Design the sequence.
């Protein structure tokens, strides 16, 4: 039953894709000609090779899948978690959900083939869907969100330095945030995305509300300090550039202290393996001959 439904959905999706491709043919030809004019290719034959055609069709398919994802899954908890894990652009989101659905379908297919009883099969499928959703969220938090938070902490001082330079050059804070977000996208796409949102929020709601929203999205001490310093500097009329440079220096010092603490904990952690695997066998080796000699005389 599931295989038949999957095949039917695949056929319907293929028909919709073909009809949509035909309706966009003229527009696509215009776009292709324009791209050829601005490309580095010497001839249309070179530009319209099989690899370019596959790439273009893949892009159309990604756009179609992304429209479905945003339409039906935009309120899903997993979808809202993606920006926190560094998956900001539509290509990353589409690929993530594509892998997620393929993994879920394969899992359901395995459950279907391993169970002959329909009632047990349905029960196992429901349990699999629930457990799979929980496991995917846990994996995403562990390997994506936590890693992205670490990346944000590492690169936040560079963001502060760039913003201080932008404000010193005469930019407003809002324009400086937008300009800096373009540069730090390669360091942390999640931070760049949140900074853009923060800049737009400042323009619409002011520094106080924008800072509160940013702290909700990024619950980091560096972000709390940044929003507090920026709000105080704007309200008191102090120089934003000087405040940002001082904060950048303090943040670097704090990260340096954290690193020293981690290095100090390494010695304590190495003490237990040293005692268990080195000191204890040596002690046993020293004491064992005497104990054996004493036992043999008894």
Sequence:
């Amino acid at each position: 039953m599931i295989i038949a439904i999957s095949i039917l959905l695949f056929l319907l999706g293929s028909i919709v894709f073909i009809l949509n491709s035909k309706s966009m043919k003229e527009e696509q030809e215009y776009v292709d000609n324009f791209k050829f004019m601005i490309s580095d290719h010497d001839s249309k034959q070179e530009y319209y090779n099989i690899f370019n055609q596959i790439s273009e069709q893949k892009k159309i398919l990604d756009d179609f899948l992304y429209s479905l994802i945003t339409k039906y899954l935009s309120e899903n908890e997993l979808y809202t978690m993606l920006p926190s894990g560094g998956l900001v652009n539509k290509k990353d989101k589409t690929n993530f959900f594509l892998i997620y659905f393929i993994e879920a379908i394969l899992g359901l297919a395995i459950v279907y083939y391993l169970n002959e009883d329909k009632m047990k099969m349905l029960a196992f499928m429901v349990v699999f869907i629930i457990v799979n959703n929980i496991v995917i969220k846990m994996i995403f938090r562990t390997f994506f969100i936590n890693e992205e938070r670490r990346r944000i902490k590492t690169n936040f001082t560079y963001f502060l330095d760039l913003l201080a330079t932008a404000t010193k050059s005469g930019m407003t804070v809002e324009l400086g945030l937008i300009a800096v977000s373009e540069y730090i996208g390669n360091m942390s796409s999640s931070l760049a995305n949140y900074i853009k949102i923060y800049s737009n929020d400042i323009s619409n709601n002011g520094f106080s509300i924008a800072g509160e929203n940013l702290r909700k999205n990024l619950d980091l001490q560096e972000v709390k300090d940044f929003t507090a310093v920026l709000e105080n500097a704007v309200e008191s009329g102090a120089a934003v550039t000087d405040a940002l440079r001082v904060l950048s220096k303090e943040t670097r010092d704090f990260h340096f202290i954290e690193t020293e603490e981690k290095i100090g904990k390494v010695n304590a952690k190495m003490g237990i393996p040293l005692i268990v695997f080195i000191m204890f066998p040596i002690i046993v080796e020293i004491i064992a001959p005497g104990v054996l000699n004493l036992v043999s005389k008894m």
Summary: DSSP finds twelve helices and no strands in the chain. Residues 240-297 form the longest helix (58 residues).
